[in-house]
Specification:
48% of the residues lie in helices and 20% in strands. The chain is of the alpha/beta class. It has a seven-stranded mixed beta sheet, with helices on both faces. The longest helix is centred in the C-terminal third of the chain and has 23 residues, at 168-190. The termini are far apart. It binds S-adenosylmethionine.
């Protein structure tokens, strides 16, 4: 089945892995182009909020579904603690490792792993983050439970994900861009038909800000809070173990 026609039942791990493998080389370029570079600001905001909630700068963190490592690198620059990035798509990690090699940053491990079955001990990190990867999980509750499991008590989880713009007129304009323009440019410039149509499909099937908040609370996170970014195009959810 072509990825573009998969709507809610779209979260099949091997298709997601193959899709990101196919666009890995052009992923960063298209990400920044199609978001007008706003994605960089969202990742910086995520790091800032993790630091604020933990109340210190020397925390350990695992960045799940790290892809080419943009959030991992921002975290690496922000904390003196251990930073690990994990993703199940090898070609994305290859690009991430190349980027890391060009930065004058302390060690940062990028490793291949499925976020639903993490090779990490219970309570082994003070923070866990995920940017634009959570939506692709086959099972959201399983993903949340894994995040909770690997966090220490009082550890912080941060989920940055595309969401639902709130204001009606803006929502319609954005919907037009997101469903009509972005997939065409994305397909053309990536040279791969499908992934950039999958994006609006998968965002449309994703829980609203309030629903995700409730799901986080239901698995056991406390003090769950979210921030709408750029009118709700994206949202950052934070929860504490
Ligand atoms: C849109 S990219 C986001 C990459 C990066 N976090 C960023 O902010 O640019 C989504 C990533 O999630 C990864 N991913 C999706 N499901 C995953 C899973 N179950 N385990 C590990 N990685 C996963 C994909 O391989 C892909 O690299």
């Amino acid at each position: 089945m072509p990825i573009s026609s998969r709507a809610n039942s779209a979260r099949n791990a091997s298709q997601v892995r193959a899709m990101f493998g196919a666009i890995a080389r052009r992923y960063d370029f298209l990400n920044h182009l199609l978001s007008f570079n706003i994605d960089k600001r969202w990742r910086r905001f995520t790091v800032k909020k993790i630091v604020e909630r933990l109340g210190r700068r020397d925390f350990s963190v695992v960045d799940l579904a790290c892809g080419t490592g943009d959030l991992t690198l921002a975290l690496r620059a922000a904390t003196a603690g251990r930073v690990v990035g994990m993703d199940f798509c090898h070609p994305m990690l290859v690009v991430g490792k190349q980027k890391l090699a060009h930065k004058q940053l302390p060690t940062c491990l990028l490793s291949e792993a499925d976020a639903l079955r993490l090779p990490l001990r219970d309570g082994s990190f003070e923070a866990v983050s995920i940017a634009f990867g959570f939506r692709n999980f086959e099972d959201y509750d399983a993903g949340l439970r894994e995040m909770l499991r690997i966090l220490r008590k009082d550890g912080v989880a941060a989920i940055l994900e595309f969401s639902r713009p709130q204001a009606p007129v803006f929502r319609q304009l954005y919907h037009f861009y997101f469903t009509r323009i972005l997939p065409r440019i994305g397909d053309r410039l990536s040279g791969v038909p499908g992934p950039y149509a999958y994006l609006p499909d998968s965002v449309g099937a994703f829980p609203s800000q309030e629903e995700l908040k409730r799901q986080m609370e239901a698995v056991g996170f406390r003090d769950v809070q979210y921030y709408n970014l750029n009118g709700g195009i994206a949202a950052l959810h934070l929860g504490t173990k």
